Amino acid sequence: MFNSRQVCAYILHGNMSEPFDCVGCKTSLYGRRFILVKEQPHCVPCYDKLCAKTCAGCGQPIGHDSMELFFEDKHYHERCLRCFHCQLSLADQAFSSQEGALLCKDCHSREFATQCHACNMPILPGTRRLELDGVTWHDACFICQSCKKPIGSQGFFPHKGQYFCVACHENKMSPRCKHCKQALPEGGVIYQGVFWHRKCLLCASCRAPLADQSFTSHQDKPHCLSCYNRLYTNNCEACGEPITGQEEVKYITFGERQWHRACFTCSLCTVSLVGVGFYSSNDRILCGDCNRTQ
Q1: CA neighbor of 61 nearest in space, from 72, 85, 45, 73
Q2: What predicted TM-score, i.e. pTM, was given to this entire model?
Q3: CA distance 167 to 188
Q4: How many whole angstroms separate alpha carbon 136 and alpha carbon 128?
Q5: Is the pLDDT of residue 6 over 60?
Q6: CA–CA distance from 249 to each of 76, 231, 240 (Å)?
Q7: Could you give phi then psi for residue 97, rounded to 5 degrees?
Q8: What is the rounded CA–CA span in Å between residue 142 and residue 148?
Q9: What is the mean pLDDT of residues 76-99?
């Protein structure tokens, strides 16, 4: 900020027998206006000639009858202290100096303040801002690209150089549940290449939740193992137990009959018939050796 001063001239009255002369022109100062400079009296013309500062704005002397403003080591007429860019008077304004040029607050902001990425206006000191990846926004300008509402201090998601509030990101970017078609932000289940809410993945028969248990499918519909075995499985010809829908359960089919892989053995000698030739005799299946002995 600047400082100011007004030079005061005095008139001396008193005993004129004592000399009181201008230090410049030696003229008696009794009854005349004079100015003290470092305790030495000057008449007004000598003051303006010898002591007045030179205005940094116009280059002219700052006379005794002018308001003198000074900033750092430079002096100005009151009328000459102006913004370098817009010429606004700085006599009653806050201003700054940039490389020797005086700038009002607005011009300094336009020239040197950080620009908002959204509105391209300067972000003034003390203004709430948000900085992200080297880019700065006014707090009110950092908005969701979908609903256009300020994100503020809420959570958000970046997507292809744009930013979305949590609600809009879930609504527009998150996968949709196969069953209810609602957004599935996290914690879902992938079944048959599509997403499901855990609560929406239910057995097509008994409606039991399947997310935390083994299950299988029939005609592209999920079923718990109990319902699948009850509705669709056959019993093993050898042990009589059901051949379940679990993927790890291997089985052999011959005609309309089925066997667990481990149960597919010769009816006489019980040698495994998996991957080898066999013979069917009535309800029995036989290896080659047992078939020849019959």
Answers
A1: 45
A2: 0.33
A3: 17
A4: 10
A5: no
A6: 97, 17, 15
A7: -115, 130
A8: 9
A9: 78
pLDDT at 247 over 70: no
How far is 92 from 114, CA to CA, in rounded Å? 26
Q: Which residue has the tokens 């308001």?
A: 67
Q: pLDDT by residue (tens digit) across 115-165?
A: 888 888 777 666 788 888 778 888 888 888 888 888 877 778 877 778 888
Rounded distance, CA 11 to CA 28, Å? 11
Q: At 87, list the tokens.
A: 């010429």
> What tokens appear for 224 in the block?
């718990």
Query: What separation in angstroms does the CA of 152 have from each of 142, 175, 188, 212?
Result: 7, 26, 29, 39
User: What is the rounded CA–CA span in Å between residue 71 and residue 54?
Assistant: 13
Question: For every residue of the chain, which 3-state class applies, written as one string?
Answer: CCEEECCCCEEECCCCCCCCECCCCCCECECCEEEEECCEEEEHHHHHHHHCCECCCCCCECCCCCCEEEECCEEEEHHHCECCCCCCECCCCCEEEECCEEEEHHHHHHHHCCECCCCCCECCCCCCEEEECCEEEEHHHCECCCCCCECCCCCEEEECCEEEEHHHHHHHCCCECCCCCCECCCCCEEECCEEECCCCCECCCCCCECCCCCEEEECCEEEEHHHHHHHHCCECCCCCCECCCCCCCCEEEECCEEEEHHHCECCCCCCECCCCCCEEECCEEECHHHHHHC
Instruction: Tell me the percentage of the chain whose pLDDT exceeds 90.
Output: 4
Closest Cα to residue 174, out of 162, 157, 161?
157
Tell which residue, 263, 267, 256, has the closest CA to residue 239.
Answer: 263
